[in-house]
Amino acid sequence: MYILGISAFYHDSAACIVKNGEIIAAAQEERFTRKKHDHNFPQKAIEYCLKEAGITANQLDLVAFYDKPFLKFERLLETYLTYAPIGFQSFIKAIPLWIKEKLWMKEMIKDKLGYEGKVIFPEHHESHAASAFYPSPFQKAAIITMDGVGEWTTTSFGFGDRNDIQLLADIKFPHSLGLLYSAFTFYTGFKVNSGEYKVMGLAPYGEPKYKHLIYDHLIDVKEDGSFRMNMEYFNYCQGLTMTNEKFHKLFGGPPRVPETKLTQKEMDLARSLQEVTEEIVLKIGNHVYKETGLKDVCLAGGVALNCVANGRLLREGPFDNIWIQPAAGDAGGALGAALIGWYKYFNNPRTADGKTDQQKGSYLGPQFSDEEIYSFIQSKNLKAKKLNDDDLINTVADLIADEKVIGWFDGRMEFGPRALGARSIIGDARSPKMQATMNIKIKFREGFRPFAPSVLYEKVSEYFEIDKESPYMLLVADVKKERRRKMTEEEEKLWGIDKLNVIRSDIPAITHVDYSARLQTVHKETNPRYHKLIETFEKKTGCAVIINTSFNVRGEPIVCTPEDAYKCFMRTNIDYLVLGNYLLAKEEQTPLQEDIDWRKQFQLD
């Protein structure tokens, strides 16, 4: 039995296919169209999923769309009517698209797929909950979903038990932790639905000076984590921006203009918001534990990508174990919807062993054989050397130890926003200069942005204050105290962005200014080749940690194909490119022709 899940028309459109309950393939549309956060109907992602499953659309048993378009339309209309005539410009931009396309989702799906069967429409947060619980290792667990907004719901909790999911309570629009975070993302000059993680990364440079203003004026939080927002300060219900003049007056001026210099104010705003977010997440977690009595919890929704809050919930919260959907945002809704079809619509049984999840390391995207890679190399007349597995691993480990930057393209592409060792740029975590090199010369992005470590799962507790796995780079943990470097008196006095270039540990390239790291534990079972690379690097250097950042430049989706990888390699200061078993050295390649204006191709995020 084959079930196709689809998410579309908000951001991060995606498709997923499930065969007899097993996740066969999943991918975001952006990876194929090369348009970051592509929200359009995921035609190419669907084509990939069907191809990976080896079927055509007319062989599908069910199609599941991740939310209810009519319910979402009701919310839009009711919101516009509440604020009318304010918001008319937003109204006339949105409504024609709904009348023409979005309300006819069933017909659109059938038409675009050439499919005549059943289409189901779970609610948005039900899809999030399903994406979190069903692939998790737990037979029974609490569930928390938090995002901007689905149809009406913005936050919900409940529990999963075998093949059933029950959502017990929710918070409804316009009160939204995700939209509060997006409002500050907008105000600090970053792009909404894209730059929220930058705000999280900026927070350790600041002090929580504005926290009292947030609590006193913007959001009323109860002890159980429920909250109400003061809509007098926000513009997202009726306008085309997130904040209004009253918000700007409260925080001392207009929003920062994008791409202008960051000031201490933005850092302090980020820290204040981040602390409020973490405190709300902890309160919600404690309440959910009291209500369900369950020691395991599953998270999804865009707020679940806040790995700092996740780390605090694991350390300070009541739960023994946390499992977070790697594609926690809207892309993961496609996976959740497909699994709802299998477990709830068709009522199939589910068993979990308490240890192993069903996400397959989230390596669910396209892969390319050495034959396909060789064909690409030949078509472009590239200089490449083919190596056997052992020679390739040994050579790359030596190159990393020599502070070379490697584009690593191997196996199936990751599903979700994180690169996990299939489409990654990797380097030496021991290098004091590697963070600046990668940010400025390779990623072409803001210098304050931290990098993530990939660490052998067996060695994680030797480097970080954590004894749990974090395979999907969704938990933050502190670098162990014995690995930290004692600061000088002058360094202790540094403030804000001046903290950036201070060496803080024996793995400085991945140690953030607050000694934290967003870590990925690498497992032999899900990515044996990447595990072997780090294992070999450790044998040569004594260090079981390397840098892992996504294989793309700022504003570009993560690379999907060998050609995407080669273009990114040639456009940056990456030293070597690994394509399967082929190794390419930058110095041996002919510069790309007619590629001078490539940066205009990508809109900055």
Mean pLDDT: 94
Q: Tell me the structural class.
A: alpha/beta
Which strand order do you get reading across the main beta sheet?
13-21-20-14-15-19-16-18-17
Main sheet attributes: strand count, strand direction, barrel closure: 9 strands, mixed
Ranges where pLDDT stays below 50 over 5 or more residues in a row are none
Spatial separation of the terminal alpha carbons = 39 Å
Task: Give me the number of helical elements.
Answer: 20
Silhouette: globular
Rg, rounded, reads: 23 Å
The percent range for strand residues is: 15-25%
Helix content: 25-40%
The count of strands amounts to 21
What does this structure look like?
This protein has 605 residues and is α/β, with parallel strands linked by helices. The protein has 20 helices and 21 strands. The strands form 4 sheets. It has a 9-stranded mixed β-sheet with strand order 13-21-20-14-15-19-16-18-17, with helices on both faces. A 5-stranded mixed β-sheet has the order 3-2-1-4-5, sandwiched between helices. It has a 5-stranded mixed β-sheet with strand order 8-7-6-11-12, with helices on both faces. Strand 9 and strand 10 form a beta hairpin. Helix 9 packs across helix 11. It is globular.
